[in-house]
Amino acid sequence: MNKPLILVVEDDVAVRNLITTTLRAHDYRFLTAANGESAVLEASSHNPEIVLLDLGLPDMDGVEVIRRIRSWSNLPIIVLSARSEDTDKIGALDAGADDYLTKPFSVEELLARLRVTQRRLATLQTGMLTSGAVFTNGKLKVDYAAGCAFLDGQELHLTPSEYKLLCLLCKNLGKVLTHTFITQQIWGRSWENDVASLRVFMATLRKKLEKEPGSPQYIQTHIGVGYRMLKVE
């Protein structure tokens, strides 16, 4: 598996050096940015495949960086932040982040998160979910080979995690998928905090998929258990 180009956005020199030294030791290619404006410029100019983003930047909040990148790109964004409150995590995930790692973190955990993201990228890029197939359910269409989803003929602008979540539900049409199963498939692990993240991703996916989220047509919640993709005639 080819190592992706990673954009490291971190204003703390010591932390940035720790991350880049780790990446270099494991043969990752990387770019760096010390503030939000530089991060957006680097992301738009060099098309990195993954962004590692600190939220506490000197010129703007990292959540604003996420929103700016999300206005034109669905590249995976992993937040690295000292903010550990659930509201901070939910805010970043809701803005479009794909993962959230709280400082201080171990080098091993950072590398593990990168490996999970790499596998997700490889899956999306090669169409391995259902190679060459197109899934249709009512007005929803998912072109696995192209990595795109459409609703009533309009393309849905999904983050990588939202897209993978949608594909997982589509592949298991009519089946109730537990929280544990979904988080294992999406993030390669099942921690209590991931269930909270899953709820955020499911809420943002529903906003894009359901005309009336309060009366879902496609995704049904099984309280305390998980979610199911409904068959739409």
Automatic annotation (TrEMBL):
GO terms for biological process: positive regulation of DNA-templated transcription. It is found in: Cytoplasm. InterPro entries: CheY-like_superfamily, OmpR/PhoB-type_DNA-bd, Sig_transdc_resp-reg_C-effctor, Sig_transdc_resp-reg_receiver, WalR-like, WH-like_DNA-bd_sf. GO terms for molecular function: cis-regulatory region sequence-specific DNA binding; identical protein binding; phosphorelay response regulator activity. Keywords: Cytoplasm, DNA-binding, Phosphoprotein, Transcription, Transcription regulation, Two-component regulatory system. Residues 132-231 form the OmpR/PhoB-type domain. Signal peptide: none annotated. The keyword Transcription applies. Residues 132-231 bind DNA. GO terms for cellular component: cytosol; protein-DNA complex. The modification 4-aspartylphosphate is found at D54. Residues 5-118 form the Response regulatory domain. It comes from the Bacteria. May play the central regulatory role in sporulation. It may be an element of the effector pathway responsible for the activation of sporulation genes in response to nutritional stress. Spo0A may act in concert with spo0H (a sigma factor) to control the expression of some genes that are critical to the sporulation process. This is Stage 0 sporulation protein A homolog. It comes from Flintibacter hominis. The lineage of its organism: Bacteria, Bacillati, Bacillota, Clostridia, Eubacteriales.
